[in-house]
Structure formats: C-alpha cells, structure tokens
C-alpha cells in the first residue's frame, strides 16, 4: 500500500462532483438504515450496535457474500421499506456530491418475501423523487434480471415494469451467477426491452472471463458492461470495447474483496484507462464492502497513481456513459466544469 493521501487531497475527492452508474439498492442500504430494519424485526439479538453490524458484514469470498446478501434480504419485510432505503441511499450519495446516479434494484427477487414487483417499484420511485425534492440529486432506476432464472421469468418482470419506463425506471441489467448461466438465452428479453425503449446494460466479465463480455455484447446488444474486469483476457475484445465506445462500470473494491483480482496491482482499471477505454468508477454494494464512491476514487489516487486530472477525466466519463438524455449530459458537464474550476482554484491539492 502506498502512503496515505494528504488530508487536502482527501477533502478534494469528497468535494469533487460525481456520477455513479453501478450501485445496487439492496447492497447500498446505509448502515444506520439497515440497523434500524434489523432492530425492528427483533430477530438478531447479537446485533446490538452499529459496530456489531459492521463485524457481521465482514466477508472475504463470494460464498460468504451471498450468504450475507440472503440474510440482509430478510429485513426488508414490507414494500414501504424501499422508499426509505432509496431515500437514505440518495441522501448518502448527495453528501458525497453525487449529482446523478443510476440505481440497480431487483424487485423480482422478493417474491418469496411476499412483496410485489409493482409495490417495490412504486415505493423505490417515491424514495428517489423525495430525495430529488429534498437534496436535488437526480436518479434513475435500473431493474436487474437474474440470468439464473428462466428467460420467461425475465419477460414477466419486463412486462410488470414497463408501465414505469420513463417514470422512474430507465433500463435493465442482467445479474446473477455468470458461470453456467450465459447471457444468450436472454437475447429475446433484451430485444423486446430495446424495442420498448429500455436502456441496456449487463454484468459480465466479473466471475466469468472475456467470453462472458462477448456474449453480452453480441447476444444482448448492451450499451454498457457492468464490471468488464476480465476483458483483457482477450486483447481483441479490449480493442472492440474501445472502438465501439462501450463504457465499463468498474468496481475496484468489490473486485478485490470477492477475489476477482488478487491484488490492487492486478486490477486492470489503470490499464484500461491508459488505453483510452470509457472507464467509470462505481461502488457496487458499498455497505456490503465497507466502501463508497468517494473511497473508490481515493483508492485509485492512493494505490494506482491516478492524478487529480485523471479523476476529473473519470468523473466526466461517467456523464458520457450515463443513460441521461444528451441535453442533460451537456448541462451536467457544464455544472461539473464550474465545480471543478472552483475546486482547483482553491489549490486544495497543494
């Protein structure tokens, strides 16, 4: 590990304007909010304090992560919970000067808890709208479908969320275990989603290799790739991603904790950035990984030598990679330029 960043650089990274494109609502429940949900249910006597909860969430591999993910789901017991979760997540991001966020959520995974896709979606939309009113943060929702479910289930979910397209929901993503579950069977679902006007992304190249990314690009026609970490296993794929300007939603801490990369030095984000790929910085499941979008930028500066100019480039990448309308992208870029100018004029990094 390199030397700690100077305090003024840390503050600069907190204050810099940001966009986040890959953050899971269910994995980003602020710790205090999750603690309150656990206390309300009253089934975890060992979780008496926030520190108890922090210790509970420690994990070092995907198996333990999946166990904790299922455990955490048991505390969102009513559809109304999703309004408060969305609101508090966006409050947290607002405090990090995130201006716009595309939040991934999986309403189709809560059927066993007796919650409806319609109810979860409507309350999540209420939460994001309330956050916009209170904090000014703009956001859209991306619905995650699971590749471990039959495509017919994906089409059912697509039908249920279509009424909310343009009214809170902007796109779909494909998640779930990559190994043994290729993207191709979801080609029909994605083709239908595209015709209806959904924006398209998919998790790929995280736990499976470069072929998984090719699968998502060729068979789903995705506009962005969630993670894309292992693209460099095929140099031609890296060139294709660059030539087609396919953004990568990269999540460094997540990749390290789950063992996708053995060390920060092995993570390819620096390589991809230097090659001119449209790399973006994201936190994935920040509560589950004890990180944040601010900390992700800090890791790049501290561990991989990203300069302040590089961080600005990355922040602007996220605007270009977003699913915002073009006019909103231009106004957001202008806002970022003003804020960056103010920050740099303060000479915070000297």
Q: Topology of this structure?
A:
Elements: H1 7-15, E1 18-24, H2 31-41, H3 50-56, H4 62-73, H5 81-95, E2 98-105, H6 117-135, E3 138-146, H7 151-161, E4 169-175, H8 187-196, E5 199-204, H9 210-220, E6 224-227, H10 235-243, E7 248-250, H11 252-257, H12 269-274, E8 279-281, H13 286-289, H14 293-303, H15 308-321, H16 326-345
Parallel strand pairs: 1-2, 2-3, 3-4, 4-5, 5-6, 6-7, 7-8
Helix pairs in contact: 5-6, 15-16
Question: What key phrases describe this protein's structure?
Answer:
350 residues; alpha/beta
How would you describe this structure to a colleague?
The chain is of the alpha/beta class and 350 residues long. It has a single domain (7-345), classed as Alpha-Beta Barrel (TIM Barrel), CATH 3.20.20. It has 16 helices and eight strands. An eight-stranded parallel sheet has the order 1-2-3-4-5-6-7-8. β4, α8 and β5 form a beta-alpha-beta unit. The two termini are 22 Å apart. The model has no long low-confidence stretch (mean pLDDT 93).
